[in-house]
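ok so heres the complex, two chains, lmk if somethin looks off
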Amino acid sequence: MHTTPSRRRIALAAAGLMLGLSISLPLSAQSFEAKDLVAAEALREAGLKSGLAYELVDSLVTEIGPRPAGSLNDQRAVDWAVAQLQRLGFANVRAEAVPLRAWKRGDAHAHVTAPFPQPLVMTALGNSVATPKEGIHAEIAYYADLDALKADASDRAHGRIVFIDQKTERTRDARGYGRAVAARIQAPLEAAKRGALAVAIRSIGTDRDRLAHTGATRYAEGVTRIPAVAVSVPDADLIARMTRYGQPIKMHLALQAEGGIAAVSHNVIAEIPGSERPEEIVMIGAHLDSWDLGPGALDDGAGVGIVTAAARLMLEAGLRPRRTVRVVLFANEENGFDGANAYAEKYKSQVHQFVGESDLGAGLVYRFQSRVRAEALPAIQRIAEALAPLGIAPGSNEATPGPDAALLMRRNAWPALELSQDGSDYFDWHHTPNDTLDKIDPAKLRQNVAAWAVMAWLAAQSPLAFGPMPAAAPAAGAARP
Amino acid sequence: MHTTPSRRRIALAAAGLMLGLSISLPLSAQSFEAKDLVAAEALREAGLKSGLAYELVDSLVTEIGPRPAGSLNDQRAVDWAVAQLQRLGFANVRAEAVPLRAWKRGDAHAHVTAPFPQPLVMTALGNSVATPKEGIHAEIAYYADLDALKADASDRAHGRIVFIDQKTERTRDARGYGRAVAARIQAPLEAAKRGALAVAIRSIGTDRDRLAHTGATRYAEGVTRIPAVAVSVPDADLIARMTRYGQPIKMHLALQAEGGIAAVSHNVIAEIPGSERPEEIVMIGAHLDSWDLGPGALDDGAGVGIVTAAARLMLEAGLRPRRTVRVVLFANEENGFDGANAYAEKYKSQVHQFVGESDLGAGLVYRFQSRVRAEALPAIQRIAEALAPLGIAPGSNEATPGPDAALLMRRNAWPALELSQDGSDYFDWHHTPNDTLDKIDPAKLRQNVAAWAVMAWLAAQSPLAFGPMPAAAPAAGAARP
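and the predicted structre for the whole thing:
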């Protein structure tokens, strides 16, 4: 998952609004058919017994592993996904080309040279430019967080390596991450504006492991592109401790990287065609790419497994949805949202009953949220009731689905549904080599599958259309990948 | 800490024998003086308030960091220790030269090439020879554990890279580690005897982090020396999963390393001279060296801090012990016990009231054990009573102190005392880059300091001599570094 601060602010703003609204609406002609509700219960029970999601993640991380967008392994993952979706009996399985500019990591080394020589565990942030071959050797300008850097009108950063010691708070949702990640995204810009030679940040993560967290960063037109890295949390602690000695801290940083590489990836799509309104789409997504440092079991192998297994449950039960259920495995969520943008453009004229995405790992779903027109809220309430036995509570009508789906929602004004996962430990492993299969609890994955199956099925059967949405409020804004 | 299987077997054998024996002995003329018991209580309370141990570990890992024996950083650590011990007011502070043969890690890379190309997180085991420069590319011969390899009389390992998937069980004491570590120590020998080209083991560790655990391994005369590495636990899982596909698994392994480097390190020693029997030594130790992968906060920065702070409490209280209290910070515990052997030789004729060592991290002390002559058990019982308020229970009279002290105990038949630490999480971080300051809880460290101060003080004041020990039983055997 890649999250921008703007998305988080929206989620925060929505925290109060609950679903009680729907109670006052007439339900008679808008009710689900009884057989569809019975089928939802059967899907729920079948989901809790399904091992398919775990089998799919296992297969993906064992047979493919790391699959950064545009790499050979990314192409292997696309082939894998097409083969799996065909094997599982979906219709219209296809890989839709997504041109993109890839970024490739090279060797990277950093160490403190003064006052005490120490090696640093670090990694380049995604899109970072390289240092000169001999590296950069300069004094560190220490900032406790991004705000401290932004507030600095002095020339302290000039000619130095800026270090931002931004902490990431552990929260059940992604809020702690959302608050911290601006330091990763804006670091090179804010540091370069002040004349810094390079920027290093404390990893955006809640762990205390000697593994650095990568993730996309951004440059801006007209501002010098400086190298940007993250050091592991214990290494950030080390630098912070060295500041107590009151002596200049010097760092040597050398990294190689290559950006702007022309490449092609693919959105992989599979469907269960609708029986009555095949032109209306229930879109459940995940992203197929991962960062290069790890095999992406949680980010987003888990999501790939969950939404695929959820849709497969309908096929196994012999169910034919009224609307088309479409599984979309997006290309390059991590570093550019090229897949989401390509999908948004290609399918912009298609009615989407909702868009959703599973991309916060493999924790239990604890909340169900929507962003639909008010007239559809009775259907949302009925879906919430069907999810309740899974321990899932109703939330607001200000859902923010996974990042690709959020982009679609904003760009095309499509309705969205969200199954909020417990992400308490997700940011311990996110964007690090530690994102491995052992971090997934198969039982929790099954609960996710059950929830997605129930939600997708009932949305496909709903007597109420979830859209069109009223004219977008300015707060939702444009997608900011 | 470096532990050999033999040491663990002794601990296991001792599990039943408790201290009840002492109750039947006369206590009158053998009692501690009341003022000494009062002083022990004061030391205990002062220890629980002392921040010195944490300050020392902080200083060591911040200013020095990794300090493998014979390295420049090892020498810097020796200088650091001498300066600290002098600053703290100890007498007879000295660094005693310890010649040794150092081993130096070089670059290392490994990946699976078939059936699915995947990178592997791995590290060379200590003392490993290098591969040819172009590396070794061969099929893996998978063994579930060392016993499976030992039981294999076939030629399956011949011309292959042996992989040993030995699991490490989490236990409060080091027993789980003790049972698993033979796979690390004996792997290259057992694999080479069967014609293997190299050997890789699952890291001997209880974590699931993408960090490999190093540690010493051994070669034997007359058996080919083959390269030996450990892969991280998740990478071992990956290899195990690949075996399910029934296809040959191939690995490429390239590592550089250099052994047999002539070097000198030092045992660093400081004393509080005894007032009545200065020639009798209460020896509390730790080891100053660490592995190269991390700063050795737990292994054994914590021990260095604990025993130094414990002795310092006596100076701060103005106490003058009857026997000499000697702090010994050993050289090269990790890869050869050169410091312990040098100490054993140099001081073999000196009476040691006991030898002890803190080297299992920074967990709470939960047990106090002894290995003293039977006549001294009433004193041991009284020490146990003084430790009880710290939550420390009495154990057996078959103590196994830390590894350097255990070598001294066996080689010179010296009495020993042991403060058993809770090591439940120690092997999550042991011998990895993750052995950093954040893994230490300062409150737990203070409990350790209090316990060591009480134990060392009362042993120094004891009306009973703890030795000489009866003739060594064959089970204790010779030291096996």
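quick notes: Chain B touches chain A at residues 58, 61-66, 115-119, 121, 208-211, 233-234, 237-238, 241-242, 294-295, 432-434, 436-439 (CB under 8 Å). thats all i got rn
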